[in-house]
Amino acid sequence: MSAPNQGADRGADYRGGSLSGAFLALVRRDLLLAFRRRTELLFPVIFLLVVISLFPLGIGPGPQLLARIAPGVIWIAALLATVISLDALFRSDFEDGTLEQFVISGHPLTLIALAKIATHWLVAGLPIVLLSPLLALWMNLPAESLGVMVLTLLLGTPILSLIGSIGVGLTISLKRGGQLLSLLVFPLYVPILIIATAAVMATSDNLPYTQFLGLLAAGLITSVTLAPFATAAALKISLS
Amino acid sequence: MNTNVNHPSKPRKSALVLFIHKLGSPPWFYAFSGKLIPWLWLLFGIMTAWGLYLGLVKGPADYLQGESVRIMYIHVPSAWMSWMIYAVMAGLGFITLVWRIRITEILAMSSAPIGAAFTLVALASGSLWGRPTWGTYWVWDARLTSELVLLFLYLGVMGLYNAIDEPRKAARAACLLALVGVVNLPIIHFSVKWWNTLHQPNSISFTGGSSIDASMLWPLLIMAIAVKFYYAANLLSRARVKLLEQDLRKAWVRNVVPRDLPRVGPDVVHRDRGN
Questions:
Q1: A28, A106, B68, B188: which has the fewest C-beta neighbours closer than 10 Å?
Q2: Are A191 and B153 within 8 A, CB to CB?
Q3: Which of A163, A237, A238, A239 is the mutation pick for testing B, counting most B CBs within 10 A?
Q4: pLDDT for B37-66, tens place per residue?
Q5: A23 CB contacts (<8 Å, ≥6 apart)?
């Protein structure tokens, strides 16, 4: 797919034909679009903060109880924030027809899906990771658990974006796919939630936790390899 | 030269392959399954009556669990079926996505409600058994929890299938979701299993010796086979209805459905009014 694309107007900039060029061009474009709408960029982060702050209000401010439920609460809030931000993954591209142009562009749709997912994580997942020390502070998580908490989020949130993208691909043609999307992806998030919270809880009980991080890393590698293909297949079905 | 001899480069299909190919055609499938269904219901009836008689009347009560152990004859086969049907659905979904065979697509989508029903039965009977045994209706125990997640997966497949208007597109999307689910199911199952320990250990295993007495094992196995006939009969019945619905305007349906029966569908309604 080199010859016809080489003459593309921004060829020099985007190295039009090559796979990595297409990937980087797409990531750059989506990041640019995201940063042009900065307030929208903040919504998932604010959502996360609001949800977390509801827990002490609903359960009570007892520091020991909060510390006990902190890993689960932070992780569940991360799941919710991810699912809320997922719908934007392909929405605007689907509505203005860009997605169809991607399909006929000659570049593998799997690669395009991977680029979109990577951008989604940078925009929606990474802020959660960066914000997690503050959340841990709010939830009175012990300091020795903080590092592992951040690590589980770092390894786990990309999996959330990857698995979630399959659900988005399947529901993109529906006008109100958001509610259905949560039904589709939450069951698939169960293992991540279990393993990640187990890792954090192990640290507060002074138990070994590296095996859980290993499992999360394995899950990340597996989903990076498989999920983009499933997303591409789902998008093709939705566009048919 | 004898013209009846097949060309050597085109080997004749074996009877079995030919039969499977024929089943892919809706009229053939409709006719064949119509003949099969009464036998499946009959076998289901006989096996169920036999299994329940052995289990509920002849079989002994458990020395620990008492009479409530008899819930097992419904609960365990339902739980087995709930997992098996998901695997079958995903297998049919794979065939659908690769070869785009319409019959497997319809079979996969007809499997989902049956599997969900079995999951629900397993959950309900499990919690009824839990009340006298554990002293509570619901425990976040590994097997109940993974059964619950399985129910959510079924509901997702059914929800997606019903949300998309065009039936063939809906079926392909739901089949892909079923495939994603089947990749995740072992991970979900083992993570949940590891997450919890309260449940009894497996008492039936096919590799090692079984810790269950023959007087309880036989009715259980008979019931396990009976529900498979139920699945087959129910599946084929549902698939036949779906086929008729989708092919309402095709010639073969007009030949199959008796003329005197009231027809469904807007175009037919108009014609009837005209008369």
A1: A106
A2: no
A3: A237
A4: 999 999 999 999 999 999 888 877 776 777
A5: A111, A114, A115
